[in-house]
Amino acid sequence: MFASGTSPGPQIPRWRFGWCEGYCSYQTCDLSLVLGKVQYRQLFVLIYCERQTNQLLEGCSKDYKATNRTYLKQLTVLCSSTVSLQIMPIPPSTINHIINAYFSAFSAMNAAQWSELFTPDAQVYDPVGNPPSNPQTDSKPFFDILQKKNESLVVKPESVFIVGNEAAVKWSLQATNKSHKEASAEGISIFEVSESGKIQKVCAYWDDKAFLAQLQT
Protein backbone atom coordinates (compact mmCIF):
# COMPACT_ATOMS: atom_id res chain seq x y z
CA MET A 1 0.00 0.00 0.00
CA PHE A 2 2.87 2.35 0.81
CA ALA A 3 5.71 3.65 -1.31
CA SER A 4 8.60 5.51 0.24
CA GLY A 5 9.33 9.09 -0.79
CA THR A 6 12.14 9.85 -3.19
CA SER A 7 13.27 13.21 -1.84
CA PRO A 8 16.42 13.47 0.31
CA GLY A 9 16.19 13.01 4.07
CA PRO A 10 13.92 10.74 6.15
CA GLN A 11 11.71 8.40 4.18
CA ILE A 12 8.04 9.22 4.50
CA PRO A 13 5.43 6.88 2.99
CA ARG A 14 2.63 7.73 0.63
CA TRP A 15 -0.71 8.51 2.21
CA ARG A 16 -3.96 7.73 0.51
CA PHE A 17 -6.13 10.82 0.71
CA GLY A 18 -7.51 13.02 -1.99
CA TRP A 19 -6.35 16.49 -0.95
CA CYS A 20 -3.68 18.26 0.94
CA GLU A 21 -4.31 22.02 1.42
CA GLY A 22 -3.93 22.78 -2.28
CA TYR A 23 -0.50 21.17 -2.64
CA CYS A 24 -1.74 17.79 -3.86
CA SER A 25 -4.96 16.89 -5.66
CA TYR A 26 -3.97 13.40 -6.74
CA GLN A 27 -5.42 10.16 -5.38
CA THR A 28 -2.07 9.35 -3.78
CA CYS A 29 -0.01 12.09 -2.12
CA ASP A 30 3.70 11.72 -1.36
CA LEU A 31 4.35 13.43 1.98
CA SER A 32 8.05 13.68 1.26
CA LEU A 33 7.14 16.09 -1.55
CA VAL A 34 4.88 18.00 0.81
CA LEU A 35 7.77 18.28 3.26
CA GLY A 36 9.77 20.11 0.59
CA LYS A 37 6.95 22.65 0.35
CA VAL A 38 6.88 23.04 4.14
CA GLN A 39 10.37 24.49 4.15
CA TYR A 40 9.03 27.55 2.37
CA ARG A 41 5.47 27.77 3.63
CA GLN A 42 5.08 28.50 7.35
CA LEU A 43 1.34 28.80 6.91
CA PHE A 44 1.19 25.22 5.69
CA VAL A 45 3.03 24.05 8.80
CA LEU A 46 0.45 25.76 10.97
CA ILE A 47 -2.48 24.31 9.06
CA TYR A 48 -1.04 20.84 8.59
CA CYS A 49 0.51 20.22 11.99
CA GLU A 50 -2.10 21.91 14.19
CA ARG A 51 -5.44 21.64 12.43
CA GLN A 52 -5.52 18.84 9.87
CA THR A 53 -4.23 15.84 11.83
CA ASN A 54 -7.63 14.24 12.34
CA GLN A 55 -9.15 15.42 9.06
CA LEU A 56 -6.44 13.76 6.99
CA LEU A 57 -7.20 10.39 8.56
CA GLU A 58 -10.96 10.82 8.72
CA GLY A 59 -12.80 7.94 7.12
CA CYS A 60 -9.76 5.65 7.01
CA SER A 61 -9.71 2.19 8.55
CA LYS A 62 -8.52 1.67 12.13
CA ASP A 63 -5.35 -0.15 11.04
CA TYR A 64 -4.57 2.54 8.48
CA LYS A 65 -4.91 5.24 11.10
CA ALA A 66 -2.68 3.41 13.56
CA THR A 67 0.03 2.91 10.93
CA ASN A 68 -0.01 6.41 9.57
CA ARG A 69 -0.17 8.29 12.87
CA THR A 70 3.42 7.18 13.38
CA TYR A 71 4.40 8.92 10.17
CA LEU A 72 2.30 11.94 11.05
CA LYS A 73 4.28 12.35 14.27
CA GLN A 74 7.49 11.99 12.28
CA LEU A 75 6.42 14.70 9.86
CA THR A 76 5.37 17.01 12.71
CA VAL A 77 8.82 16.69 14.28
CA LEU A 78 10.47 17.39 10.93
CA CYS A 79 8.27 20.41 10.35
CA SER A 80 9.03 21.75 13.83
CA SER A 81 12.76 21.50 13.19
CA THR A 82 12.40 23.12 9.77
CA VAL A 83 10.37 26.17 10.75
CA SER A 84 10.45 27.89 14.13
CA LEU A 85 6.95 28.94 15.18
CA GLN A 86 6.86 31.23 18.20
CA ILE A 87 3.93 32.95 19.91
CA MET A 88 4.83 36.46 20.97
CA PRO A 89 4.13 37.17 24.65
CA ILE A 90 1.52 39.75 25.60
CA PRO A 91 3.10 43.09 26.60
CA PRO A 92 3.33 43.55 30.39
CA SER A 93 1.40 46.80 30.10
CA THR A 94 -1.53 44.90 28.59
CA ILE A 95 -1.48 42.30 31.36
CA ASN A 96 -1.36 45.10 33.93
CA HIS A 97 -4.42 46.65 32.31
CA ILE A 98 -6.27 43.32 32.40
CA ILE A 99 -5.44 42.82 36.08
CA ASN A 100 -6.56 46.34 37.01
CA ALA A 101 -9.81 45.81 35.10
CA TYR A 102 -10.31 42.49 36.92
CA PHE A 103 -10.06 44.05 40.39
CA SER A 104 -12.01 47.15 39.38
CA ALA A 105 -14.95 45.09 38.09
CA PHE A 106 -14.79 42.86 41.16
CA SER A 107 -14.89 45.84 43.52
CA ALA A 108 -17.84 47.28 41.60
CA MET A 109 -19.50 43.84 41.84
CA ASN A 110 -20.20 44.14 38.11
CA ALA A 111 -20.72 40.63 36.75
CA ALA A 112 -20.94 41.68 33.08
CA GLN A 113 -17.67 43.64 33.09
CA TRP A 114 -15.87 40.99 35.13
CA SER A 115 -16.92 38.01 32.99
CA GLU A 116 -16.01 39.89 29.79
CA LEU A 117 -12.35 39.65 30.81
CA PHE A 118 -12.33 35.85 30.54
CA THR A 119 -12.16 33.27 27.77
CA PRO A 120 -15.32 31.14 27.33
CA ASP A 121 -13.70 28.10 28.97
CA ALA A 122 -11.86 29.98 31.73
CA GLN A 123 -11.52 28.46 35.19
CA VAL A 124 -11.32 30.30 38.51
CA TYR A 125 -10.16 28.54 41.67
CA ASP A 126 -11.18 30.91 44.47
CA PRO A 127 -9.70 29.85 46.74
CA VAL A 128 -7.49 27.01 45.54
CA GLY A 129 -8.94 23.76 46.89
CA ASN A 130 -12.49 24.62 45.86
CA PRO A 131 -13.95 23.29 42.60
CA PRO A 132 -13.31 25.65 39.66
CA SER A 133 -16.00 28.07 38.54
CA ASN A 134 -16.57 29.39 35.03
CA PRO A 135 -16.97 33.18 34.93
CA GLN A 136 -19.19 33.08 31.85
CA THR A 137 -21.82 30.93 33.57
CA ASP A 138 -21.25 31.47 37.29
CA SER A 139 -20.45 35.17 37.68
CA LYS A 140 -23.99 36.55 37.75
CA PRO A 141 -25.31 34.41 40.64
CA PHE A 142 -22.01 34.94 42.48
CA PHE A 143 -22.12 38.74 42.23
CA ASP A 144 -25.85 38.76 43.00
CA ILE A 145 -24.98 37.20 46.38
CA LEU A 146 -22.15 39.71 46.95
CA GLN A 147 -24.47 42.65 46.24
CA LYS A 148 -27.16 41.24 48.50
CA LYS A 149 -24.83 40.75 51.47
CA ASN A 150 -22.35 43.62 51.18
CA GLU A 151 -22.62 47.38 51.40
CA SER A 152 -19.15 47.87 49.94
CA LEU A 153 -16.33 45.71 48.63
CA VAL A 154 -12.87 46.92 47.69
CA VAL A 155 -10.19 44.62 46.28
CA LYS A 156 -6.89 46.27 45.35
CA PRO A 157 -3.80 44.84 43.70
CA GLU A 158 -0.81 45.68 45.90
CA SER A 159 2.07 44.08 43.97
CA VAL A 160 2.13 42.59 40.47
CA PHE A 161 4.84 40.28 39.13
CA ILE A 162 4.61 39.40 35.44
CA VAL A 163 6.48 36.63 33.63
CA GLY A 164 5.46 35.88 30.04
CA ASN A 165 1.67 35.60 29.86
CA GLU A 166 1.29 34.91 33.58
CA ALA A 167 1.19 37.16 36.62
CA ALA A 168 1.29 36.75 40.39
CA VAL A 169 -0.68 39.44 42.22
CA LYS A 170 -0.68 40.21 45.93
CA TRP A 171 -3.96 41.89 46.81
CA SER A 172 -5.93 43.25 49.76
CA LEU A 173 -9.65 43.08 50.44
CA GLN A 174 -11.87 45.32 52.55
CA ALA A 175 -15.60 44.67 52.94
CA THR A 176 -18.57 46.08 54.85
CA ASN A 177 -21.73 44.01 54.97
CA LYS A 178 -25.34 45.18 55.24
CA SER A 179 -25.09 45.02 59.03
CA HIS A 180 -22.10 47.39 58.88
CA LYS A 181 -19.65 44.78 60.06
CA GLU A 182 -16.23 45.05 58.50
CA ALA A 183 -13.72 42.45 57.40
CA SER A 184 -10.34 42.41 55.73
CA ALA A 185 -8.13 39.85 54.02
CA GLU A 186 -5.00 39.47 51.95
CA GLY A 187 -4.14 36.96 49.28
CA ILE A 188 -2.16 36.09 46.20
CA SER A 189 -3.71 35.21 42.84
CA ILE A 190 -1.99 33.66 39.85
CA PHE A 191 -3.33 34.77 36.46
CA GLU A 192 -2.86 33.02 33.14
CA VAL A 193 -3.71 35.14 30.10
CA SER A 194 -4.40 33.64 26.68
CA GLU A 195 -2.91 34.92 23.41
CA SER A 196 -6.31 36.53 22.74
CA GLY A 197 -5.79 38.88 25.69
CA LYS A 198 -8.39 37.18 27.86
CA ILE A 199 -7.89 35.55 31.26
CA GLN A 200 -8.01 31.76 30.98
CA LYS A 201 -7.21 30.76 34.55
CA VAL A 202 -7.05 32.29 38.04
CA CYS A 203 -5.80 30.51 41.17
CA ALA A 204 -6.44 32.49 44.37
CA TYR A 205 -4.61 31.67 47.59
CA TRP A 206 -6.27 33.12 50.69
CA ASP A 207 -8.27 32.21 53.81
CA ASP A 208 -11.88 32.83 52.81
CA LYS A 209 -13.25 31.12 55.93
CA ALA A 210 -11.41 33.51 58.26
CA PHE A 211 -12.71 36.44 56.20
CA LEU A 212 -16.32 35.29 56.39
CA ALA A 213 -15.98 34.67 60.13
CA GLN A 214 -15.15 38.36 60.64
CA LEU A 215 -18.46 39.33 59.08
CA GLN A 216 -20.42 36.95 61.27
CA THR A 217 -19.02 37.91 64.67
Number of strands: 7
Query: Strand order, biggest sheet?
Result: 3-7-6-5-4
Strand share of the residues?
25-35%
Fraction of residues in helix: 40-55%
**SSE sequence, one letter per element:** EEHHHHHHEHEEEEH
N/C terminus separation: 77 Å
Integer average pLDDT: 76
Uncertain segments of ≥5 residues (pLDDT<50)?
Answer: 1-51, 81-86
Characterize the overall form: elongated
Number of helices: 8
The assigned structural class equals alpha+beta
The main pleated sheet reads as: 5 strands, mixed
CA radius of gyration is 26 Å
Polypeptide structure, described:
The protein has 217 residues and is of the alpha+beta class. The protein is built from 8 helices and 7 strands. A hairpin with a 4-residue loop joins strand 5 and strand 6. The protein is elongated and about 70 Å long. It starts with 13 loop residues before the first strand and ends with a helix.
Question: Which secondary structure elements does this structure contain, and how are they paired or packed?
Answer:
Blueprint: E1 14-15, E2 29-30, H1 31-38, H2 42-51, H3 53-57, H4 62-82, H5 92-107, H6 111-115, E3 118-125, H7 135-149, E4 150-163, E5 166-177, E6 182-193, E7 199-205, H8 208-216
Parallel strand pairs: 3-7
Antiparallel strand pairs: 1-2, 4-5, 5-6, 6-7
